[in-house]
Amino acid sequence: MNDVIFMVLRGLIALAIGLVNVIIYLYVERKVFADIHVRLGPMRVGKHGILQPIADALKLLLKEDIIPSKADRMLFVLAPVIVFAPSIMIYMVIPLTDNVVANDLNIGIFYIFGVLTIVPIGVLIAGWASYSKYSLLGGLRAAAQQISYEIPLLLSVLGVIMITGSMDLRTIVGQQSGSLVSIGNIGIIPNWFIFLQPLGFIIYFITLLADQFRVPFDIPEAESELVQGYQTEYSSMKFGFLQLAEYSNVLVLSAVGVLLFFGGWNGPVLPPIVWFFIKVWIGILVVTWIRMTLPRVRVDQLMTFGWKLLLPLTLANIALTGFLQLYFA
Amino acid sequence: MQNILFYIIAVIMLVACWRVATTKNLIHTVLAAFIVLMSTAAIFFMLNAEFLGVVQILIYAGAITIMVLFVVMLTTAGPRYEVTHDKKIKPSMYLSTIVVFATLVFLVSNIQWPMGTTVLQLEDVTETLATKIFLEYLLPFEIASILLLVALVGAVVLARKE
Amino acid sequence: MATSEITLELVDRLVEKFPETVKNKYLDWHTLIVRREDIVELCEMLKSDGEFEFNFLTDLSGVDYLEYMEVVYHLYSYELQHKLCLKVRVKPDDLLVPSVTSLWSTADWHEREAYDLFGIVFEGHPNLKRILCAEDFPGHAFRKDFPLENDEEYLLRDEKTAEDYGISEDLPS
Amino acid sequence: MPDLRTETLRVNFGPQHPSTHGVLYLIVDLDGEIIVNVEPVIGYLHRGMEKIFEFRNYSQCIAIMDRSDYMSAFFNEMAFIYPVEELMEVDVPKRGEYLRVIMMELNRIASHLLFYGAYGMDLGAVTPFLYCWREREKVMDLFEIAAGYRLHPNYFRVGGVKEDVTDEFLEGTMQFVKELPTWLEEYETLLSYNEIFNLRTRNVGKMTKEWAINLGVTGPVLRATGIRWDLRKTDPYSAYDDFDFDIPVGTHGDCFDAYRIRVLEMLQSARIIEQALNNLPGGPVRAKTKLNVSPPKGEAYARIESPRGELACYIVSDGTQKPYRAKVRAPSFVNLMAVPPLLKGHLIADAIALFGIFEPVMGEVDR
To answer: Where are the alpha helices (DSSP H) in chain A?
Structure first.
C-alpha cells in the first residue's frame, strides 16, 4: 500500500513541477513579447506584474462559464479535458535528472508521442461540439495539421533512437555525457546528439512549432481568419484549459528536445537539474521569439511543406543514419 | 490492487462498449469507441506489455479515431446528424450479436491457453518484437506493407476519379 | 501630362450624333445633358470610340433638384487624359434610368447608392437593392423632401419602387 | 449513396471580427477552405454625412468631413475644400499651400504606417503593428502641435490653413522625415524580406490593368498593376507642381506589389516634406475670405490622391452658405466593390491578404 501512496505522491509532484513551469511560461512569454515590442507588459499585479498569471487564472475561474445553447454540452465540456490530459500524462515520464523521475518508463519517448496523438481528437471534438462554423473550421484545420505533422515529428526522433538503441530517456541522456571534441581534458563540443543528428533536430524543431500551433504555423487559431479557431466559443476555465494545454505541450516538447538533442541535464559546474531547466527555458524563449517575429503561413503551404519537404527529409535522415550506423559500427 | 484496477477498467470498457452500440449520435459513438480503445491500452499496460499499450494508443486511439471522426464530420448531413435504426434490421442485429458472443464464450472457456511461466522483462518485449518482425518474419512484414501501399494508392486513385 | 478637358470638337461631334443632348459647361468640365434613352448608346460610343476612350467612370452621383432628379456621370480617360461630365435628368414621378453597369463594372455600387438614397431606379442593373441603409428603411434619405422629423405621412406615401418597374430586388442566384 | 456530398458552408464574416478593419460584414460561402461567393454588407457606419452637409455651412462641413476617412483626415478636408476654392476662385497663399502639402504628406505616412502594421497583423506578424503604431504616434504628436487635435485636426480652411505653424513643428517634422528611412529599413526586414511574407503575398490576387480600370480601382492597388497614375503628378493640385518626387509602380499587380508601393510612397512623401520644409515661403497662410463662406451658384468636381486612392468631391452650390449637394467619391467605397469578384476561388487565408491590400476604411465606405 505504501508503494501506491508513494507512486501517487511522485505523480503529484511531477504535476506540480510541470504546472508551475507553465505558469512561469505564461508570465515570461508576456514579458518577452513586451520587450520585443518595446513596451512594458504587465506591471500592475505584484512587482513587475509577477503575479499576473495568477490574476489571469483567477479571472478565468471567476468568469461566467458560457456554453452555447446549441452546443453538444457533454462533448463541449469534455473536449478541454481530452486536450489537456495528455500533457499531464507526459509529465509523469519526463526525467529531470538521472534519478528524479515520477515514473521510469523504458519506452518513454515512444510513450510521449503515443500520448500526444490524443490531442487532435480533443481539438476536433472541441471544434465540433461548439456548433460554430469558425470552431468547426478551426478544429478541422487543427486536427489535419497535427496529424500530418506528427509523422515527421515521430520520424525525426527515430535517428536518435537508432544511435542509442534505446527508447529510455535516461539512457539517451546518459549516452550524451562527455564531449565529442576535446583539447586535452577540456571539452570543446559536448557529446550532444544535435551534432550527430543536425537534420533530425531541425525537423524536430519545425514540427514542434507546427504540432503545437506556434507561429508561423498557428493556422488553426489564425485570429485574422478564424477568430480563435476551435477555441472561439470557449470561455472561463474551459478556455483556460485549452490555453494551458498548448503552453504545457510546448514545455513538454521543449523538454523532450533537450533530452534528445541537447544532452539533457549534462553540463559542467552547475547541478544537473539546473542545467536541465536552463536548456528547457532557452528552448521556450526561442519559440517565443519566433512567435513574435514571423508572419503566418497559409494552410496549403503548410501541408505542402509538411508532406513534400519534411517527410522525405526525415526519411532521408533515417536512411542516412542507418547507413552511417552500419558503416561505423 | 491490480484486481481492483482491472475491474474498474473492465466496467468502464463494458459501459463504453454498450454506448458504442446504442448511442444515436455518431460523434458520441466514436468517442465511446475511443474510450474502449484507451481502456484496452490500459489493460496492456497492466499486463506489462507497455509497447503494445503505446501502439494501441498511437494507432487505434489516436490515428484511427481521428480518421473516423474526420469521415463522420465531413460526410454526414449537418452537425446534428443522428443515426436511425431501421426496424427491419434490428432482430438480425441482435441475433448476430448473440451468435458471436456465444461463440466467443465457448471458445474462451474451452481452449487450453498456454500459461506463460516466465515474466518478460520490459526491455525484452520491444526487443523480441523487433527481432521477430525484422529478422524472422521480414518477408511477410514487407509483403503486408506493400499490400497496404497498394491499397493506399488504390484509394487515392478511386477518390481522385470523381 | 495633366488631364485636360475634352476638346470642343469632340463635344460637338457628340451633339451631332445625339441631337437631343444639350451642351453645357461648368468650370473646366464640358457637360452634356443627355436624354435617358440615349445614355447607354452614348456611353458605349464614349467607351469604345478611339477618339474618346473613356475607360474610367470615376463618379456617379444623384442630385435632387426638386422639379427633376439628376444623375451625374464623371468620366475620365486613362489613355487620352481627358474628361467629360454627363447628366441625365428624370422627373420625380418616373425615376427610371438605364444602367451603365454593363460598360463600367464600377457603376454597380454607385448606382445602388443612388437608388438607395434617391430612389432612382437603374434599369438593367444586376443586383439593384439598398446598400447603405437597412433594407426595410422607409423612403429615400437624401431627397430634399425627406422629412428630418418623423413625418408619418411622408413615410406612408405611395412610391414607385424598383418592383414597379419590374426589377427584382432579390439576388440573381 | 445519394446523400454523400460536400456542402458549401456559409460563414458570417463580421461585423465583429478581428480582421475586417471596422464594421465590414461579409457573407462568405466556403467550399472547404475555398471561397465560392462573397457578398459584402455595408452601411453599419452610415451617418448620412452628405445629407448633414446640406444643413451645415462650409466651415462646419470641414469638421464633419474629418470623420469620413478617419485615418487620413487632412485628405478629406482637402478634398472638400478643393472644389469650393475652384468655385470661388480663391488664390491660396504659397505658404498655406506648402503647409497643406506638408500636412497631407505627413498624413499619408501615418496612414501607410497603419496599413503596414495592420497588414502584418492580418498575416499573423504582431510585432510590426506595434512598431508602426509607435512611429505613427510621432506624426500624431506633430498634428497636435500644429492643429491642436490628433485624429480630426480640422486644420484646413477655405483659402488656406487655420493658423501658422510653430518652429517646434517644423523642427519636429524635419527630424521625423530624416529618421523615417532608417525605420522603414528596419521594418522591412520584418516583412518585405521575410520568406513567409513573400510566399503569402507574391502572385496572390493578380490583377490586370483592364480589370482594375473597369472596376474603378484607384490608389496603390491601381499602381500595382503597372499604371503610372497618381493625381499629384497627372493632375497636380495644391503645390505639388513645385516638388520633385517619383511614383512607384508595380509590375505584377499582386498583393506584394501593392504593399511595397505603399512603403516606397512613404519615402517619396518624406522627400516631398523635406523639400517643402526647405523651401517654405513666408507670408500669410490664409487668403482673405469671408468668414461665412458662400461660393457662387454653380457646381464643381475636384479630386485628390488620398492614401487609398482617388478621393473626390462633387459640390453643387446654390449661392447660400450651405452646399446644396455634396457628394464624396470615396476610394474605399469603390475599391471595396472590387474585392468580391477578386476573392472567388481564393483560400480564406488569401482573402485576408487581399482585403488588407485594399485597406478599406469603413468610415469612408459608409460615410
So the answer is: 2-36, 52-62, 73-91, 108-116, 119-129, 133-164, 169-174, 193-196, 198-211, 223-226, 236-261, 272-293, 299-304, 311-328
